[in-house]
Write a sequence for this structure.
């Protein structure tokens, strides 16, 4: 049997963080920059061991500002690049996440969410950075964030993150809770030929004809990297199609910022992934993501046993928010239940699109995930209204 | 004749993005001199422009990345060295020059600077030190001399300034030099030496800011500031950088540090070969 250093084909008992690192390597990630932080450190540790084996590059930077800057630099030098962190580090990365958005730099940022604000609960899982993922950096922009709910998905969705980052030239987030990051479960890693990976579009014109920020029809410009002879200028300032600063021309700012949003919005059908369970005839729907979606699944089964027509919509893509899907759902059910490990973040989006349909929010913070019976109780109450 | 046609006649024009000229710098600013010396060094060395990346931060000097005709990155404030580290480590074949100002490199970016020097990442860092934040109108910075006037030290500066060459030498740079914008030939030679040397190299350039810092501190026109550089600068190669503090009476210039030390990339390559051998063997 051939042993692949890049793809560890086979069945493994693996930790979520480690599966994320292996997913990245399988996706073609060859540059990792990071800074230690609980509960994401194991990703950096795995990368420190593994990158050298696959001819990749690992560097521990002086902080998360630097880690984010380094992966942007690495991406422009042609590498698929990633960093991993948790809340406090994620806050520090926001500045350069904005730079990655503005410069259309493909890269992946993993956030293993822990209890917050501030230093909070380093060892406890949470879902408190969902809105920070969407709005954390300054200005208007759209991002892609995927929320795994198992160790298998820590592997699979990390690959998906790289594919989205390369396709849309945008920073893409793997938004996992600390429980999923530290969970040990079975992971099946397929053979390399069964893993779909995507590479960024390259220019098809010679350097003198190339406009580095002129988009194709899909609103994404082909990307020439450093050292390829295209003399690309990259700036965080508002820039024209040549990449040159044009900071006082209203038209250029309007076109650029709208395109950065539209390239994600217009492709949202391609980006949005959901999982549905018993929704066909459901009267009460649970909308959940990450670890609470697992308790929700059990709660829905409990409800069905109790004769309540309940179902589950699990959001795999959290951003862009699957609003069409949730709106459709809200037209078909009597009530929606949203359990989250925060004080109310995705529920705001659900309420925004559900309009008249009652939305029952079940907050749980502190470091204990929801139990199935807690969610079941809310389903039962919701079914009566 | 249009402005661009006139520029095209310049012997170093091919290194510049002429369509972006005239530049933003004030009359008498030292940043244009630094750009001139840098491209002259590229020309003298015959640097492959397809493999050169110029990285800069925010501020007056930060605009330099957009003027040189090669791959270039105008990053966020203070982050050019962290970003350049990513570029260099992901593609070791590229030559990296970071050109930025004192505030960008040593205030907001100070942490990245010392750690890149400590790691000995292969890059040349050129700092235009004009003793204040020029682009935002002249605020106090990490190199502003004691008692100087800026918009945020209206009663005089009470913060002690960094001695950049001492700081850089202590952080582990393999090459440390200081010149003023008056020392055009020596600065060019210094840049050439740095570009040819492996490791983290640092050149401080004392740069006149007649319109902002100079005006507020009554230093006169650029020509007066340049005359002053001639009077008070003293070339002392190999001088102890700890003693090379800039004072009103003296600016010690020259090459302070020129040593050999394995770079981050070299040590990594060694480790890589060892691991690869082990993997093939085992």
């Amino acid at each position: 049997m051939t042993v692949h250093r890049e793809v560890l084909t086979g069945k493994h008992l693996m930790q979520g963080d480690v599966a994320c690192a292996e997913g990245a390597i399988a996706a073609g990630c060859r540059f990792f920059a990071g800074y230690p932080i609980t509960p994401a450190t194991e990703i950096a540790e795995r990368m420190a061991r593994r990158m050298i084996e696959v001819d990749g590059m690992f560097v521990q930077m002086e902080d998360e500002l630097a880690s984010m800057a380094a992966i942007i630099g690495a991406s422009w030098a042609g590498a698929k690049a990633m960093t991993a962190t948790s809340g406090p580090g994620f806050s520090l990365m926001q500045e350069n996440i904005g730079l990655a958005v503005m410069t259309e730099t493909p890269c992946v940022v993993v956030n293993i969410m822990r209890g917050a604000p501030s230093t909070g609960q380093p060892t406890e899982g949470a879902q408190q950075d969902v809105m920070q993922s969407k709005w954390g950096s300054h200005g208007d922009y759209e991002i892609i964030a995927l929320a795994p709910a198992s160790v298998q998905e820590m592997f699979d969705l990390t690959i998906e993150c790289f594919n989205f980052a390369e396709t849309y030239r945008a920073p893409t987030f793997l938004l996992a809770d600390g429980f999923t990051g530290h969970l040990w479960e079975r992971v099946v890693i397929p053979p390399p030929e069964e893993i779909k990976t995507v590479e960024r579009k390259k220019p098809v014109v010679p350097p003198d004809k190339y406009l580095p920020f002129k988009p194709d029809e899909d609103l994404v410009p082909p990307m020439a990297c450093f050292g390829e002879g295209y003399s690309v200028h990259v700036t965080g300032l508002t820039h024209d199609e040549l990449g040159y600063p044009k900071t006082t021309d209203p038209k250029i700012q309007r076109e650029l910022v709208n395109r950065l949003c539209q390239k994600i919005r217009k492709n949202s059908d391609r980006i949005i992934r959901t999982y549905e369970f018993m929704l066909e005839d459901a009267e009460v729907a649970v909308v959940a993501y990450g670890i609470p979606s697992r308790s929700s699944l059990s709660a829905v089964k409990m409800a069905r046993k109790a004769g309540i027509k309940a179902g589950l919509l699990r959001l795999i893509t959290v951003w862009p928010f699957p609003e069409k899907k949730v709106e459709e759902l809200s037209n078909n059910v009597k009530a929606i239940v949203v359990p989250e490990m925060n004080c109310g973040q995705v529920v705001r989006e659900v309420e925004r699109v559900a309009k008249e349909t009652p939305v029952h929010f079940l907050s749980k913070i502190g470091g204990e995930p929801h139990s199935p019976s807690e969610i079941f109780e809310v389903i039962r109450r919701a079914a009566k209204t | 004749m249009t402005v661009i046609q006139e520029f095209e006649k310049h012997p170093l024009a091919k290194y510049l993005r002429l369509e972006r000229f005239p530049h933003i710098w004030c009359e008498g600013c030292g940043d244009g001199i630094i750009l001139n010396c840098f491209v002259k060094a590229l020309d003298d060395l015959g640097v492959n422009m397809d493999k050169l990346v110029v990285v800069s931060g925010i501020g007056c000097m930060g605009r330099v990345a957009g003027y040189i005709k090669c791959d270039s990155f105008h990053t966020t404030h203070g982050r050019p060295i962290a970003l350049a580290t990513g570029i260099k480590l992901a593609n070791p074949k590229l030559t990296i020059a970071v050109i930025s100002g004192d505030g960008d490199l040593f205030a907001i970016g100070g942490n990245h600077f010392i750690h890149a020097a400590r790691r000995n990442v292969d890059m040349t860092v050129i700092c235009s030190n004009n003793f204040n934040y020029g682009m935002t109108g002249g605020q106090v910075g990490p190199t502003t001399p004691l008692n100087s006037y800026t918009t945020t030290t209206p009663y005089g500066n009470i913060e002690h300034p960094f001695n950049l060459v001492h700081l850089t030498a202590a952080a582990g740079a393999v090459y440390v030099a200081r010149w003023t914008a008056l020392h055009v030939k020596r600065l060019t030679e210094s840049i050439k030496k740095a570009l040819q040397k492996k490791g983290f190299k640092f050149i401080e350039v004392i740069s006149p800011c007649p319109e902002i810092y100079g005006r507020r501190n009554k230093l006169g026109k650029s020509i007066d500031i340049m005359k002053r550089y001639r009077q008070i600068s003293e070339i002392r190669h190999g001088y102890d950088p700890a003693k090379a503090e800039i004072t009103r009476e003296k600016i010690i210039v020259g090459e302070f540090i020129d040593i050999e030390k394995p770079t981050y990339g070299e040590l990594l390559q060694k480790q890589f070969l060892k691991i690869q051998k082990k993997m093939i063997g085992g």
